[in-house]
Amino acid sequence: MREAKIVRQTTETDIQVKFNADGEGLADIDTGIGFFDHMLILFSKHGLFDTLVKCDGDLEVDGHHTVEDIGLALGQAVKTALGDKAGIVRYGTSFVPMDETLAQVSLDISGRPYLVYDAGEMAPMIGQYDSQLTEEFLRAFSMQSGITLHVKIIYGSNSHHKVEAIFKALGQALGQAVQKNPRIHGVMSTKGTL
């Protein structure tokens, strides 16, 4: 099993993350932000990851520390679970429609973190979730996981649909990229390392 457990404790957040790359899409999520819980459940379900995320954050300030720090911890868990990345496909791309919205996520488990994020205009808040935090989560996740991550809303108008399509596509794309292929010996790189 490719799995990891990460504990991150700061003066702003107390986070526990468990991640299993070879799961069934099971999720146990409690971040204190209902919409964000829903997004992480979708990520797990559509990537077929088993994910536990528990966070006690300073939500009396706002959701920023909670969302960003979960991105850091989840990214670290993904990187740890994948180990030396031997045999993985490495790349994944997913297009996900959500009513009027179409999202694309393309990623490379390269060891070189980078985020390109183009989601257009969003409503400031979706429930108790600050929509600007989607980019913050993705950046933190990319940096800690070592993933090159490109996220684009091709078109759409409803902010809930946009963010939901992004998290579903992220799960799908990462689920593709972490798959093992028996034809791949070592890592999928001419350099011999990722």
Automatic annotation (TrEMBL):
Primary site of residence: cytoplasm
Keywords for the protein's UniProt record, in alphabetical order: Amino-acid biosynthesis, Cytoplasm, Histidine biosynthesis, Lyase
Residue spans crossing the bilayer: none
E.C. number(s) listed in UniProt: 4.2.1.19
InterPro entries reported in the protein's UniProt record: IGPD_sf, ImidazoleglycerolP_deHydtase, ImidazoleglycerP_deHydtase_CS, Ribosomal_Su5_D2-typ_SF
Gene: hisB
Entry GO terms, CC: cytoplasm
GO biological process annotation, one example: L-histidine biosynthetic process
Principal EC category: lyase
Reaction(s) the record says it catalyses: D-erythro-1-(imidazol-4-yl)glycerol 3-phosphate = 3-(imidazol-4-yl)-2-oxopropyl phosphate + H2O
Pathway(s) the chain acts in: Amino-acid biosynthesis; L-histidine biosynthesis; L-histidine from 5-phospho-alpha-D-ribose 1-diphosphate: step 6/9
HAMAP family per record: HisB
One Gene Ontology term of the molecular function aspect: imidazoleglycerol-phosphate dehydratase activity
Record flagged with keyword Lyase: yes
Protein name: Imidazoleglycerol-phosphate dehydratase
Family stated for the protein in its record: Belongs to the imidazoleglycerol-phosphate dehydratase family.
Native source species: Propionispira arboris
Pfam family, one: IGPD
Species lineage: Bacteria, Bacillati, Bacillota, Negativicutes, Selenomonadales
Location of the protein in the cell: Cytoplasm
